[in-house]
Amino acid sequence: MTGRLSGKIALITGVGGGMGVAAASMFAAEGARVVGCDLDAAGAARTEALVREAGGEITCFGGVDLGDAEAARAWVDAAVATYDGIDVLYNNASTQRFGALDELSIEDWDFTMRNELDLVYYTVRAAWPHLKRYGGGSIVNVGSIAAIRGVEFMPQNAHSTAKGGVIALTLQLVVEGGPHGIRANVISPGMTETPNTAPLLADPPERMQKVVLDRIPLGRHGQPEDVVNAAIFLASDESSWISGTNLVVDGGGSVLG
């Protein structure tokens, strides 16, 4: 690692598993002081121990429900106070439910909006006055290629809509944040291996293999590190004149339609 984030304070959501573990580990390895959170208290504690064992500086909060506006505000306030500042807000956390349009329950739709879109808004809203007070910073939101194309192998209308909302929200953050030195960008991953997708990728259904995996020009599905490397760039000063981009990280798969 090269210290690309040395001196920066990074708030990262959803560090208890999957991409969040990689995010916390890699940001800390690049010199950031990380404040993480997760609804899963045990997962957050494991990540904290892992990063500290590797020599990184991190504090994690467990049992944080970012889909509750007051809980999101309380975590952000505590996170900013931990190292007395904020330079990066990395909105990684999300949970969704899938179902065909005429089968997905209203409860599952509402759950997905709450846990993929609302939590981003609540967290950004809580961080906004801190970012303004400390002279700006970088917001990195995680979207999905599901927001820019339909998929044939999974009914994900709620997921697609929520992630489309994340992209639209980010564009407005660019306009409102620019005068305060606040940048905002989106990373939209394609099929990436996480604990949730690993079983599916180990033995993919024939249709998924045909319409997704066989059509990735670079010949492989993604790894968490592929996504986090993009986030490190957007969090670093290397991207100081980049705001409003949707950085697609999918091995080229989405260009094939």
Automatic annotation (TrEMBL):
InterPro entries: NAD(P)-bd_dom_sf, SDR_DHRS6-like, SDR_fam. Signal peptide: none annotated. It comes from the Bacteria. SUPFAM superfamilies: NAD(P)-binding Rossmann-fold domains (SSF51735). It holds the Pfam family adh_short_C2. Keywords: Oxidoreductase. GO terms for molecular function: oxidoreductase activity. Belongs to the short-chain dehydrogenases/reductases (SDR) family. This is SDR family oxidoreductase.
